[in-house]
Amino acid sequence: MSSKKIAIVMGSDSDWPIMQQAADFIDAMQIEYEAKVVSAHRTPEFMFEFAKNAHQNYDVIIAGAGGAAHLPGMIASLTHLPVIGVPIKSSNSIDGWDSLLSILQMPNGVPVATVALNAAKNAGILACQILALNNTALSEKLIAYKNEMKASVLEKKLS
Ligand code: RP5
Predict the structure, then answer these.
(1) How many domains does the chain have?
(2) Phi, psi of 57 (to 5 degrees)
(3) Segment (H or E) for 86
(4) Which of 22, 42, 142, 145 is the most exposed place for a label (fewest CB within 10 A)?
């Protein structure tokens, strides 16, 4: 069973309304997380220190950023932990493609598992699925979540 937390980091507190959707899912699964602002551009030294030490406190990192979104890739370059990237359509983003491609198009050897634009909830689900590889209770919660989702789709009536 995993004993460490999930880190949720983001380039700015303006990303939090989106990134909170990851936190909400992780909370619902009763897994601990820590959320922090870590900016690749505004606090590069802190980003370096965070990423180099992350394996001591966390099992998985979720990193979100908008615009010139270097944070997930730079963290991935500094740690062996899995990094899930959330591209954010922020106030400085042209149309979201800038952040999406900055996070997605990583060079071979430095993967970032990139979810869809603003899809922080999926990042939370994926982080829990990674932890569930060594956590049976969490696996069971994820199976229940998927079953509820399936039932809610099958129950939909259009007329
Ligand atoms: C990025 O710039 C952040 O991740 C955020 O999405 C965007 C805008 O930041 P603020 O100017 O709102 O702080 O680095």
Answers:
(1) 1
(2) -120, -20
(3) strand 83-88
(4) 42
Enclosing domain of residue 56: 5-155
* CA–centroid distance, residue 42 to ligand 1 (Å): 10
Q: Which of 42, 91, 100 to mutate to test the pocket of ligand 1 (most atoms within 8 A of CB)?
A: 91
**Site residues for ligand 1, CB cut-off 6 Å:** 10-12, 14-15, 39, 41, 65-67, 88, 90-92
What is the pLDDT averaged over residues 97-106? 98
Q: State how beta strands 58-66 and 113-114 pair.
A: unpaired
Give the CATH number, domain containing residue 20. 3.40.50.1970
Say how many Å lie between the CA of residue 107 and the centre of ligand 1. 23
CB atoms closer than 10 angstroms to residue 28: 12
Residue 89: pLDDT over 50: yes
pTM: 0.96
Q: Looking at residue 110, what is its pLDDT? A: 98
Atom of ligand 1 nearest to the CA of 13: 13
- Among protein residues, the one whose CA lies closest to atom 12 of ligand 1: 14
Q: What is the mean pLDDT of residues 99-113?
A: 98
- pLDDT tens digit sequence for 109-128: 999 999 999 999 999 999 99
